[in-house]
Amino acid sequence: MVAGVEKYFQLARCYRDEDLRADRQPEFTQVDIEMSFIDREDIYTLIEGLLKRVWKTALNIDIPTRFERITFEDALNRYGIDKPDTRFAMELVDFTQEFKTSTFKVFSARSPTAEL
Known about the structure:
116 residues; two-stranded antiparallel ribbon; elongated
């Protein structure tokens, strides 16, 4: 950045040096991106363009860009997790009002956090 290079990219083959987990691959390719004087939309545009090009080159598939965006708060409120799988309509639904008058103990007992 000091030398006047406003951005550079590096691709590196990596091995994860930690316990194995079902949702993580032990090997992966990392894309390291260094950029100066950017905002959030700049990085979104760059990554969308990169993925569009990779899919077209590798699989000859055109993917539509501008990817859907969701805030962290909306993800937690709508899906209950910060990495939702939006392929499925699995959003949280608030049934508080529907069960308010229920006599079923699970629904009628007051939660200790209800006052919060």
